[in-house]
Structures are given as C-alpha cells and as structure tokens.
TrEMBL record, chains A, B, C:
<dbReference type="GO" id="GO:0005789">
    <property type="term" value="C:endoplasmic reticulum membrane"/>
</dbReference>
<comment type="similarity">
    <text>Belongs to the MAPEG family.</text>
</comment>
<keyword id="KW-0007">Acetylation</keyword>
<keyword id="KW-0256">Endoplasmic reticulum</keyword>
<comment type="subunit">
    <text>Homotrimer; The trimer binds only one molecule of glutathione.</text>
</comment>
<dbReference type="Pfam" id="PF01124">
    <property type="entry name" value="MAPEG"/>
</dbReference>
<comment type="function">
    <text>Conjugation of reduced glutathione to a wide number of exogenous and endogenous hydrophobic electrophiles.</text>
</comment>
<keyword id="KW-1000">Mitochondrion outer membrane</keyword>
<feature type="transmembrane region" description="Helical">
    <location>
        <begin position="20"/>
        <end position="41"/>
    </location>
</feature>
<dbReference type="InterPro" id="IPR023352">
    <property type="entry name" value="MAPEG-like_dom_sf"/>
</dbReference>
<keyword id="KW-1133">Transmembrane helix</keyword>
<dbReference type="GO" id="GO:0004364">
    <property type="term" value="F:glutathione transferase activity"/>
</dbReference>
<dbReference type="GO" id="GO:0005741">
    <property type="term" value="C:mitochondrial outer membrane"/>
</dbReference>
<feature type="transmembrane region" description="Helical">
    <location>
        <begin position="84"/>
        <end position="101"/>
    </location>
</feature>
<keyword id="KW-0472">Membrane</keyword>
<dbReference type="InterPro" id="IPR040162">
    <property type="entry name" value="MGST1-like"/>
</dbReference>
<keyword id="KW-0496">Mitochondrion</keyword>
Length: 159, 159, 159
C-alpha cells in the first residue's frame, strides 16, 4: 500500500505534468465560467428557453414572452461551444503531450500560449473586438494543439 | 518489458484512480444515453433535421414535412449539450484530482455527489421538474468540479 | 530527478498506451478539421453569424444580408457536434481502458474500428450518403466505446 501510494503521486510530482495540470485546470475553469455568464445574461435580459424557467414570472402569456432568444445570450453560447470545440482537443492531446517527455520550457511555452489565446478569444467574442481579433486568437490556440499533436504522433506512433 | 507491463497496470490498481475510473465511465455512459433518447424522440415524434433521414417516408412533400423541430427533441438536445459542458470539465479536472493524492473517502465523496447530481439533472430536465430542481442539481455538480480544481491547483501549481 | 524523469516517460513506452495516444490524436485532429470545414463553407457561402465577421463586406444592409444560415454550414456544424458527443466519451473511456491492461491486439481492434467508423461517419454526413450509412457508422463507434466502458467497469469497479 505504501509503495502504491508513493507511485500514485508520482505523475503529479513530474514538473511537465504539474504544468499541464495547472493550465488544464485554468482553461477548464475558464470554460465553466461561460455557464455563469450565460445565466447572468439570461436573467438580466429575461431570455429563457425552458417554460419551467419562466414560471416565477407568472402564468400564461405574461411568462411566455420571456421564452425568446437574445443576441447577448446567443453570443455567450457560441463562445461556450467554441471553447468545447477547442479546449477538449487541448485537454486530450495535451495530456498525451505531457507524457511524451517534452522539455519543461517547451511544454510551458505551449501551455501558456494556448491559455493566453483562449482567454483573449473569450474577450474578443464577448466585447466584441473587431476581426481579425477573434480569428487570430482562435488560430493561435488551434496551432498550439496541432503542434502538440505532431509531437505526440512522432513519439507514440503505433497504428 | 515485464517490469514495464507491471508498471502500466499500476494506476488502475490505485484505489482513488479506480474510483475515478468507475464514476467517469458511469457519467460518460449516462451522457452517451442522451444520443439514444434523442434518436427515440426523433423517430416517435417524426422530427428530423437531415433530408436523407426522411427518405424512407417517401419523396418530395410527403417526406419534407418531417424536417421540423420538436419540443421534446430539442429538450433532450439541450440536456445533452449541458452534459458536455459539465461532464467534460469533470472528466479532465477529475483525472488530475485523482492523481493529486486525495484521501479515498474525500475523493469518493466528490465523485458520488457529482454523479448523483448529474443523474438528477437529467431527470429534472427530461420530466421536467419545476425549478429550482434542475438549477440546484446543476449547481451541485458545478461546485464539486470547482472543489476538485482547487485541490489540483493547490497541489500542482506551476505556471 | 533522473528517476522521476525516467518514470514520467514510462506510460508512453507502454504499447497499448502508445496505440491509445496515436488513435486519440488522430480522432481529435479529425474533429478539429471540422472547424476548418465550417470556416471554408462560411466564407464560400458567405453565411456568417457574428456582425463583426461581415464588416469587411461594407456597412449597413450590404453586410447584413450575409448574417444568415446556410444548409452546408449547418450540416458541418451538426457533424462537429456529433463528433464532440461521441469522441469525448471515446477519449475519456479509452484512456481508462488503455490503463486497465487489455491485450494489445484487442485494444488495437477497438481503436482502429472506432477511428474508421468516425472517419466514415464524417464522409457519410458531409457528402451526404443515403441512410443507413451515417446511422451505422455512428452505431459502430458507439458500440466500441460501450465495449471499452464494460472492460473498464469490470476491472476498476469501486463505487
């Protein structure tokens, strides 16, 4: 048991894995924040999608008018979906990359640029910034994940 | 090779990791179930989105009328997307949490509450239960993931 | 430190894990490709969703007409969402499966069928092929993930 526990903590003792864990937790928390922003806009804009969510506004027509789409709500939701589409590959490929034995400095460079790009992407989407602000921040994050995937395939390749 | 294989199975021998594996498989299977429920409602409500899916109903207008949205189908799809938004962070952060050396009892508490909350959330969404049933079950799952992220960042922090 | 580094690369030296890493990178890259295909159709069909994306087409009404949905764009987006719904469970359950000590040949069979089924699914969705082409490729990938989940739960079960 003792040896087992010592081994179970070994991965988290590895510096590259610790960096991966830190940045993965940060970008996943950032993605989770989108749920709160959606809820904030739904409540302040009074724009809901489920009838049971408008029950507190009364019955019948008085509540029904709040079952509508709002541009701000839809914008946050698109940002949230874009996070899912891009952060899921980062988390999956990033784990394999962290286990493929990269240099700590190279790994940190990848993780930092990805996290920075996704945070910028959220600001670019929500403010919104004029293009190509959002497009570029998306492309930077995408390229980092692609670069990590290349290293993973070069190291692990077994088809 | 022998030693290598022995080591490769070590993670799954660790009790916290076994608990993580069990609950992750359960919540991912629950999420996968949403696809089957969507298919069930699409077929029974005859509400499809792709023209090729209605070809068996005949050609032209007789098939075209089944290209429509249905409230029950849309409800399951919203539940499915909500699962993606919440179960993805659980799976990613939960893995790091399981490797950060928590007590087995504390880890089990986190995993059990999360899985229970997400199963309740699905029932609350599909029946549907009056609010705040769905809202509360969502918040409980969200808080569990947040708590695990805090432990991960405290243990691994390397920016 | 030396021993720590040696251990950190051990997982990637395991053949089943290498196979998992290879196929996970492939299916996640395939999923990422959907973003590029969406962008391609948005630009060639001139169908955008964010006002700031149409600013280069001029101001006012001349740009506003490009804020519209296009059947080809929507089709790729549905394929992308279907990837998220199915590849996320594969990546999560596949990792646990790879760590549960399966035979290399059995593991390769699972990974190869899943990757093949998802690539077929994308072609079936985008061409589109007549049903049940897309339905069958979806069901095959779904069944592979289910089979891996069964092995994970049998090996790890700790509730």
């Amino acid at each position: 048991r003792r040896e087992e526990m010592a081994k179970s903590t070994q991965l988290i003792d590895n510096e590259v894995f610790r960096a991966y864990a830190t940045y993965t937790a940060i970008v996943l928390l950032k993605m989770m924040l989108m749920s709160l922003i959606t809820a904030y806009f739904r409540i302040t804009r009074k724009a809901f999608v489920n009838p049971e969510d408008t029950a507190s506004f009364g019955k019948g027509e008085s509540a029904k008018k709040y079952l509508r789409t709002d541009p701000d709500v839809e914008r946050v939701r698109r940002g949230h979906l874009n996070d899912l589409e891009n952060i899921v590959p980062f988390v999956g490929i990033g784990l394999l990359y962290a286990l493929s034995g990269p240099e700590l400095s190279t790994a940190l460079l990848h993780f930092r640029i990805f996290a920075g790009a996704r945070i910028l992407h959220t600001f670019a989407y929500l403010i919104p910034l004029p293009q190509p602000g959002r497009g570029l921040s998306w492309a930077v994050g995408y390229s980092v994940t692609f670069s990590m995937a290349y290293k993973v395939l070069k190291t692990a390749w077994l088809l």
